[in-house]
Design goal:
The protein is mostly helical. It folds into 2 domains: 254 residues, no CATH class; 35 residues, no CATH class. The protein has a 3-stranded antiparallel beta sheet with strand order 1-2-3, covered by helices on one side. Strand 1 and strand 2 form a beta hairpin. Helix 3 runs antiparallel to helix 8.
Length: 345
């Protein structure tokens, strides 16, 4: 497909169009915008998809590993396929899937409306200080932010889970860490998308979109009104928070103080770099990035909650100890989807 710039040059050299031809040209350009929107959405979901795929592959493989299997051998329980069905970690998985489904529903089912276009001195000052001067440099910064996003939200958490499993061969904890990552990323993305649609804030480059034709090809996209908060920043911070939590609380990389702190430093650096690049590329205001980092770091660090947690129960004896636990979870039975009640005593 020809670039937008090439399309404009062609239109400017062509003969004047009548009303029907102009309408046709408008429809053709509109299709071009929609294709670009889908590509951008795909780029934004790459990192969570990688983490999700890692959990779906590593979790079942480790859960069904034989006692004498090589890298995936489990040392905690030879009958791990039993607990893999009843583990509380599956609640995190279902919650994460539910959040990702909510993100898709919001993204494709709700059109953003312009609600916030006024600027302030804080955001303007940060933009003037960090925004790159040339269009090509801003595009490079945009691409670089995708890389740092993937590092913080996919590569680092996946490596942390792999390091923990390689050291301990504990399938229960590996599966729990993987599904916790999925739930945290899903919740962060859902909150981010909901806030974007509620705020309806224009992106910084929209200030130059009043000309005819617009000065930037992105001016006609739906994403122009989804500046607050930064999705790149929130997802990057969530990945960093999860990896740091696993490194400090579970000693995923080892007991050495440097092994505990280094993943946190890498994650924080990648998340901050992502935020700076989003401002440098003129995709977000400074406040978009700061709030995005705060949302992602909070969700990533703390244990998350989801609707499927309501479908669990436990009973305690007179001594206060748990005597039974149960969960009502989706299940596949005889090639059909259904639900099953799991109870452990």
């Amino acid at each position: 497909m020809r670039s937008i710039a090439e399309s404009r040059r062609t239109v400017s050299r062509a003969a004047p169009l009548d009303a029907s031809s102009a309408a046709t040209q408008s429809r053709v350009q509109h299709v071009g915008w929609e294709v670009n929107i889908d590509r951008k959405r795909a780029r934004l979901l790459v990192a969570p998809a990688v983490a999700f795929g890692f959990a779906l592959i590593v979790g079942p493989m480790s859960a069904r590993a034989d006692e004498h299997a090589s890298w995936f051998s489990c040392r905690d329980d030879p009958e791990v396929h039993e607990w893999s069905l009843t583990s509380d970690a599956n609640l995190d998985l279902f919650n994460g899937l539910l959040y990702f489904g909510g993100v898709a529903a919001l993204d494709f089912g709700v059109d953003p409306e312009r609600r916030w276009s006024r600027t302030n001195g804080f955001d303007t000052g940060i933009r003037d200080g960090l925004r790159l001067g040339s269009s090509s440099a801003r595009k490079d910064a945009d691409r670089a932010s995708d890389f740092t996003l993937g590092l913080s939200s996919a590569i680092l958490p996946a490596a942390t889970i792999g390091a923990h499993f390689h050291r301990n061969r504990n399938c229960r904890e590996a599966w729990d860490m993987a599904t916790d990552t999925i739930e945290s990323l899903g919740l962060t993305l859902f909150v981010t998308e909901a806030v974007k649609l509620a705020a309806g804030r224009e992106r910084p480059f929209a200030r130059t979109c009043d000309g005819s034709p617009p000065s930037d090809a992105r001016c006609n996209r739906r994403g122009r009104l989804k500046s607050f908060v930064s999705g790149h920043a929130s997802i990057a911070a969530a990945g960093a928070g999860v990896a740091c939590s696993h490194a400090l609380r579970r000693n995923a990389w080892g007991d050495d103080p440097w092994a505990r702190r280094a993943p946190c430093a890498v994650g924080v650096a990648a998340a901050l770099a992502t935020g700076v690049l989003r401002v440098s590329s003129d995709r977000h205001w400074g406040s978009d990035v700061l709030l995005g980092l705060a949302v992602g770091a909070t969700v990533g660090w703390f244990d998350t909650w989801g609707p499927f947690d309501l479908l669990t129960f436990e009973t305690r004896g007179r001594d206060g100890r748990v005597s039974s636990r149960g969960a009502f979870l989706p299940s596949r039975m005889d090639d059909a989807l259904g639900a099953r009640l799991y109870v452990s005593f």
